[in-house]
């Protein structure tokens, strides 16, 4: 595990505050923790899907992706949710069928598609895994208000392309790396089932952050101009912003929230 986490810790600008762990490990925080974790998994899939649709594929291919996401999005927007029915859908419910056609003129579209489709599939699976744990513990799924973390990160995105895409990919890397770091740090304080589950997520989360960085480097390398900013410089800027969000006091407890209020 230490070998897996070493590059994650080196990439992030700070460690999760112990004060966040102290709140997260309390039994009374478990419902909020799992519900927000469940929502985060779905948001991660939706974000990756948005990147593919916006930058890499044609309209018909975009419709195929929306069909893939439809059962998940319909579930979260329903008032009367049947979790058992949702989780017992066909065994191939999480698979994606169809050929995605890359947009002409977008270099590295195939790389973005292949990495993001794999990520989406895994995030949908993680969403279902968390939902099953919640169901077994009689924790009802519910929508929660968004925290400040993702919104704060997106404030760092530049407004011109391809710089905006590069920044979005770097932000995706930080969100995945932070999730990995938090799973690892929190797992020892949880019950055996959740400990095993969170540890089981580490490898995929670590790969996700690396995939995002690989894509950022590819996109940037193809768009080098005199005004281009190296990916390493953007990582440094976004690293500082992410660390500030994690270390500063946060009024709400979320999976990616900052230090809790005293």
From TrEMBL:
One of its GO terms (biological process) is tRNA modification. One of its GO terms (molecular function) is tRNA 2-(methylsulfanyl)-N(6)-isopentenyladenosine(37) hydroxylase activity. InterPro entries: Ferritin-like, Ferritin-like_SF, tRNA-Hydrxlase_MiaE. It holds the Pfam family MiaE. NCBIfam families: tRNAmsioHdxaseMiaE. This is Putative tRNA-(MSIO[6]A)-hydroxylase.
């Amino acid at each position: 595990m230490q070998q897996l986490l070493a590059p994650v810790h080196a990439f992030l600008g700070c460690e999760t505050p112990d004060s966040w762990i102290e709140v997260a490990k309390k039994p009374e925080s478990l419902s909020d923790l799992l519900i927000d974790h469940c929502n985060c998994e779905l948001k991660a899939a939706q974000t990756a899907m948005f990147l593919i649709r916006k930058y890499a594929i044609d309209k018909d291919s975009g419709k195929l992706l929306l069909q893939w996401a439809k059962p998940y999005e319909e579930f979260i927007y329903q008032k009367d949710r049947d979790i058992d029915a949702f989780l017992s859908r066909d065994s191939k419910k999480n698979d994606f069928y169809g050929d995605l056609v890359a947009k002409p003129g977008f270099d590295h579209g195939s790389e973005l598609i292949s990495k993001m489709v794999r990520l989406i599939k895994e995030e949908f699976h993680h969403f279902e895994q968390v939902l099953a744990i919640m169901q077994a513990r009689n924790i009802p799924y519910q929508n929660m208000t968004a925290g400040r973390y993702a919104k704060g990160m997106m404030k760092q995105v530049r407004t011109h392309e391809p710089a905006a895409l590069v920044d979005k990919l770097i932000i995706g890397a930080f969100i995945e790396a932070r999730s990995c770091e938090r799973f690892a740090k929190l797992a020892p304080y949880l019950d055996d089932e959740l400990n095993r589950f969170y540890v089981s997520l580490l490898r995929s989360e670590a790969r996700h952050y690396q995939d995002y960085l690989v894509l950022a480097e590819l996109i940037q390398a193809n768009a080098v101009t005199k005004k281009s900013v190296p990916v390493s410089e953007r990582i440094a800027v976004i690293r500082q912003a992410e660390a500030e969000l994690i270390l500063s006091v946060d009024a709400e407890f979320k999976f990616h929230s900052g230090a809790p209020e005293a």
